[in-house]
Design a protein that fits this description.
homodimer, mainly alpha, Glutaredoxin, three-stranded mixed sheet, 3 strands, AGR/TXD (chains A, B), endoplasmic reticulum (chains A, B)
């Protein structure tokens, strides 16, 4: 896929550079439309904002999964790759979760129980309670996951499905 | 376009129903990835959240344009079409604006000076001041625009480029 993209890109560059010659100003490169998924699962339904995600979590009675990441962070990229390619994760995400990925922090301090860093995955109960008890394996960055932690992340997703307040 | 979509849909339904027969469970239809532009200009750079947009407006010293709309609102759809197809609008948006489109209201009351409705376009100065003075032509919904108001919208975009506080 990367190779295909690269060759398409090379063709585009070649075409645009040859087309651009008669013009005074070189045309801007055609941009690939930004997706709400940002590569974490194009087939999943993503909320755009935290407020929207909370509303959905509450009204659909589903837990919310908030993924903080950055496009230029190699750790985020590596986790994203295994997340997007893992069929079990994609299925449980699609079936049971309200999903939000953010490249910019919110004003809600509860979403950064031990600081702001990426990648960081925080679960929120439909009762609006941040599940600070659902953590990864690193004591200094409790909500961080490495690609090798993908099985733990899946287990955590299964765990967070069991709501904190089951009476909801 | 609507007709084309409809026939594509009919073909898809026909194909999927014929393909689905040998299987026990019908496969889900492949979804089109959601874009951040939501059709308001795939070639433009869109902020995801209001906080992110404000940060960009401030740090890049550009005004922010917030478009409130809904996917299932025909007025929003009609305005989106002329917005996305208008080259002057797309150019000024790309060159001079921080852009945000939202299908969910924010908690900031300043973004709804005369109520929450769609479509609604509100300009925010890089100094973080909502430009309540930049309005459309309807007294009861001052920040609404019809497709026929596209020239006024362009003029308003040119007006909002002149910052409220020029010393910034």
């Amino acid at each position: 896929m990367a190779k295909v993209l690269l060759s398409v890109l090379l063709v585009l560059v070649a075409v645009s550079s040859s087309l651009a010659k008669p013009e005074k100003v070189t045309k801007k490169e055609k941009r690939i439309p930004q997706t709400l998924s940002r590569g974490w699962g194009d087939q999943l339904i993503w909320a755009q904002t935290y407020e929207e995600a909370l509303f959905w979590a509450r009204s659909r009675n589903k837990p919310l999964m908030v993924i903080f990441h950055l496009e230029d962070c190699p750790h985020s990229q590596a986790l994203k790759k295994v997340f997007a390619e893992n069929k079990e994760i994609q299925k449980i995400a699609d079936d049971d979760y309200i999903l939000l990925n953010l490249v910019y922090e919110t004003t809600d301090k509860h979403l950064s129980p031990d600081g702001q860093y990426v990648p960081r995955i925080v679960f929120v109960d439909p009762s609006m309670t941040v599940r600070a008890d659902i953590t990864g394996r690193y004591a200094n960055r409790m909500y961080a996951y490495e690609p090798s932690d993908i099985k733990l992340l899946l287990e955590n997703m299964q765990k967070a499905k069991k709501f904190l307040k089951t009476e909801l």
